[in-house]
Design brief:
The N and C termini lie far apart (44 Å). By secondary structure, the protein is mainly alpha-helical. Helix 1 runs antiparallel to helix 5, helix 3 packs across helix 4 and helix 3 crosses helix 5.
Amino acid sequence: MSYLESIRKFESEKKISSDVKTSEQWNPDQAEALFVQAVERTKSTYVSGSLPWAEKHCPELVEAIGQAEQAFQGAFVARDMARCRAAVQEYVQAFQAVVRAYQGQRELTTDEVIRAFKCDRVWQLGGGGK
């Protein structure tokens, strides 16, 4: 999935979660537990290096994580369980979008590396040389 496709998917998922409206009894412990579970879920799917990469290459995806955190804080202060649930979904989806975008990057070919570094040859640096 390309970077642009990841953003489009994130935006469509974000719209769906923002349409969630229910009248649910406020429970601060349950709201906090929802966020803790979301953090644990993102830890289990996080790919090392994806967040620093996204900060450099697609900061809008990282901003979406911060926006989801702020949405959760606002919902928590407003004592709104439905908004807390929606914000938690947005938080997880935002992290997933970062990971998908990072994983969608392909490795450079040898020819691309040679052109990027303006080299005219590739050194063979194998172990156990003669």
